[in-house]
Specification:
Chain B: One of its GO terms (biological process) is protein transport. The complex is a heterodimer. Chain A is mainly α. Chain A folds into three domains: 2-114, no CATH class; 123-284, no CATH class; 287-369, no CATH class. Chain A has 16 helices and no strands. Chain A is extended. By secondary structure, chain B is mainly α. Chain B has four helices and no strands. Chain B has helices at residues 5-20, 24-28, 49-63, 65-82. Classes of the chains: A mainly alpha, B mainly alpha. Chains A and B meet through helix 9 of A and helix 1 and helix 3 of B.
Chain lengths: 370, 83
């Protein structure tokens, strides 16, 4: 009587109790949605009266006028409820379920972060080591003797900065920006003009100029419709390299007076201009890809446009287009199909050989059309 | 002390406002800058600088209108409160 009444009155406890009985009876199945109200054990007529009774019983033990005492029924249920969670299987499943929930939550959060902040792209820009930083700083201060300004490309993109001195990184600009703010505060302090909000003003001002520069660059690139492999973060990196020169000239102004400052500013400006012109020339006007494009446009039917920038990708793209062209335009399907894939595969390891391959393909094409 | 992030925000807000209030029929159509004006561009040709500017203006007018209302309201309220 007590047992039935309590199960029906408090669904939470009732379910637990019922689970226990079922576990004992037929093995463990905790997550089957069991509704005590539909259970045939309880008749519908029995139901409302017991409900009323137990409601009253939970109001408190001060009411002794009922047929049963709550003191006996309550601990009984609690004990059985604890028993459910005391079972090792239940614990395991609960732990597993919790871990699953936590993992899904973690991955969702990571995906959301990845949508907002391009983490993998940023990782590329911070892949630096000490040797790279030292040589890059040397390059920034004395770029005049550097000969090779082109960036090497791997299969899927440019080489990381730590292996390629010409690749733009974001580590030097970030550190230079922070150092610039601190050094500016230092100099202001030496001139007795420092106040704590000056730091914030300097930081905000420098950042604002950078963003302004970035906006102008991207607007110019868009309006002049310049096809380039430069991305927004590359532009940010190149606009951030100027802080290195600014820091140097400010430090010179501590040592000497105004003349030292202006001399330093002039020299670093010159060096930075030289550096930027050379490295951007290599990026905005990629000679190799232009040459190859001009060469192959004469000898090879180009179907569609090549959106890729690196020479390797342009070759690949052209070869694939050529293969498609053959397949569409000639009857000798299997022959062409075979060559298309052989050439594309060869391309992966013998990059230089693709020139001669291209000539072979063009020759074959001529033969086919004739 | 010159040019801060807040100044940059205000300046870009005003510029975007200026682009957005250009009237399509009363102003842009008269000087031939309307988005509906026929653009002569062959297949595969690079679009000219003028076409790119027009495209940019049109995109700003399309995309930035609703957010601009919000940003303007926020700025006005801030200005009213902080002076």
């Amino acid at each position: 009587m007590n047992f039935n009444a309590n199960t029906s009155s408090r669904p939470a406890f009732g379910r637990k109790v019922k689970r226990v009985s079922h576990v004992d009876a037929m093995g463990y199945s905790p997550y089957t949605p069991s509704n005590p109200y539909n259970n045939p054990e309880f008749s519908n007529q029995q139901y409302p009266s017991e409900y009323v009774n137990t409601q009253a019983s939970f109001d408190g033990p001060k009411d002794p006028g009922y047929g049963f005492s709550p003191q006996t029924s309550y601990p009984n249920i609690q004990q059985q409820g604890i028993n459910v969670f005391g079972q090792p299987i239940v614990q395991d499943i609960a732990i597993q379920y919790g871990q699953q929930l936590a993992n899904t939550g973690k991955s969702m959060v990571q995906q959301e972060i990845k949508k907002i902040v391009p983490v993998t792209k940023l990782k590329y820009y911070f892949a630096v080591d000490t040797k790279y930083v030292m040589s890059k700083l040397g390059l920034l201060f004395f770029p005049f003797t550097h000969a090779d300004w082109s960036i090497k490309y791997e299969q899927d993109g440019p080489v990381q900065p730590r292996f390629e001195i010409n690749a733009p990184d974001l580590y030097i600009p970030t550190m230079a920006y922070l150092t610039y703010v601190l050094v500016a505060g230092l100099v202001l302090g030496m001139q007795k003009r420092f106040s704590p909000e000056q730091i914030g003003i300097q930081a905000s001002s420098a950042l604002a100029w950078c963003l302004f520069e970035l906006a102008i660059y991207s607007c110019t690139l868009y309006i002049a419709n310049i096809q380039t492999s430069l991305k927004l973060l590359d532009l940010l990196a190149y606009s951030g390299y100027k802080f290195v020169g600014i820091i140097a000239s400010i430090l010179l102004s501590i040592l000497g007076e105004k003349t030292a400052y202006y001399c330093g500013l002039g020299y670093t400006n010159l060096a930075l201009a030289f550096f930027l012109v050379r490295s951007l020339k290599a990026q905005v006007l990629p000679e190799t890809s232009q040459q190859s494009a001009g060469y192959y446009e004469n000898s090879v039917p180009v179907v569609g446009n090549c959106p890729h920038q690196s020479p390797n990708e342009i070759y690949k793209c052209r070869i694939e287009q050529l293969g498609n062209f053959f397949i569409n335009n000639t009857s000798n399907y299997s022959f062409i199909h075979y060559y298309k894939y052989v050439y594309v595969e060869n391309l992966e390891d013998t990059f230089c050989a693709s020139d001669s391959l291209f000539e072979i393909i063009s020759w074959k094409w001529l033969v086919c059309t004739v | 002390m010159g040019f801060t992030l807040w100044n940059l925000f205000e300046a870009s807000l005003l510029c975007l406002n200026a682009v957005c209030i250009l009237h399509e029929e009363r102003f842009l159509a008269k000087i031939g800058w309307s988005a509906k004006s026929p653009s002569v561009q062959g297949f595969g040709e690079q679009p000219t600088a003028k076409a790119q500017i027009l495209n940019l203006i049109h995109s700003i007018r399309t995309v930035a209108r609703i957010p601009l209302i919000l940003f303007n309201i926020v700025t006005i309220v801030l200005k009213l409160i902080l002076g």
